[in-house]
Amino acid sequence: MSTLLETNDLTVEFREGGLGALLNPASARVTHAVNGVTLSIVPGETMGLVGESGCGKSTLGRAMLRLVDAKSGKVQFDGTDLTALDPARLLGFRRRAQMIFQDPFAALNPRLTIGDTLAEVFRVHRLCPSGEVAEKVADLMQSVGLSPDLASRRPAALSGGQCQRVGIARALAVGPELLIADEAVSALDVSIQAQILNLLTQLCAERHLALIFISHDLGVIRHLCRRVAVMYLGRIVEEGPTETVFSSPRHPYTEALLASIPRMAPDGSLPPPRLLGEPPSATRLPAGCAFNPRCAKAFDACRAGAPPAHRRDGPVRVACHLYTDDKLATHRPFAAGDH
Ligand SMILES: Nc1ncnc2c1ncn2[C@@H]1O[C@H](COP(=O)(O)OP(=O)(O)OP(=O)(O)O)[C@@H](O)[C@H]1O
């Protein structure tokens, strides 16, 4: 199947330092938010993007939609290089890929009614004659489980779950082929989270939508996504079918992340966390593999150089020095101390 969205060696940096940094670029404080990401998604596919806070998930999602500019690398949507699009053609692309945000209240204009918020999308993108907008808005509201009676209300009169349904409706209005949902349920109560996840599953299936679902929550990713990409300090360290990655993680970071899900022992105690401390700052990346200072399996090569990003082990892609060609060629599973 042809690729819908593809990033190629994508890098995003944030430079800070005020006037001093403008006069002397070498003095700028540079955050390496996305560091050479190559990833693709096909039409109708659901992919989870998971990793600790600050690892670059949101920035990657935003760069995929050109809401933030890349420093280098490419983003291609259906064969078109987004990094080279002028503003007029970018507006056309915005119909095909949309974002859903974490905070449903903040994402809506508090002064506009729900009906006006949705009607604005039909008008800006000239999606239908103005006489049909009210009917389209009512249909759209029903498709996300909102009564059209709520059209006259403002966001403050809605619950968090209802606001997120409006956010989803606004994204769907333009008939996109790809949704990027950035922590779209993490601000909601658990019972409401399940309803919104079910809605997203249903909409993706009905409309053959591709979904990139950004989340800290491994349980949610497992429930929702066929494929998962695990991110650490700006890089994808492992990527593959969700069930394969979750049942036999290759990368020590994925392994530690999965082992960090709190599970109570029969005696009521909690096992010690497997992932200790915070990730290093994205302004000062460690030499070699970025995970090496926290990796229990690190050895000399991990400190000497970054691992190749595209090594395949069956259906899984892994960026780790433990997966050298000779180990993969002989199908020798690694173990601690097996270097
Ligand atoms: N506009 C910005 N200006 C400067 N630095 C930024 C900006 N946006 C993000 N960053 C930095 O880029 C890095 C990646 O941030 P990002 O928000 O993409 O991570 P994340 O994995 O989505 O985190 P979270 O799960 O907490 O949302 C962080 O170090 C963050 O502080």
Mean pLDDT: 89
Helix tally equals 12
Largest sheet: 8 strands, mixed
The global form is globular
> Can you list the strand order of the major beta sheet?
6-7-8-3-9-10-12-11
Count of DSSP strands: 12
Query: What order do the SSEs take from the amino end to the carboxyl end, as H and E?
Result: EHEEHEEHEHHHEHEHEEHHHEEH
Bound molecules: adenosine-5'-triphosphate
| Alpha-carbon distance between the two ends | 38 Å
Give me the CATH architecture, please: 3-Layer(aba) Sandwich
The number of domains is: 1
List keywords for this structure.
single chain; 339 residues; alpha/beta; Rossmann fold; four-stranded antiparallel sheet; 12 helices; 31% helix; globular; disordered C terminus; binds adenosine-5'-triphosphate; ATP binding; ABC_transp_ATP-bind; ATP hydrolysis activity; AAA+_ATPase
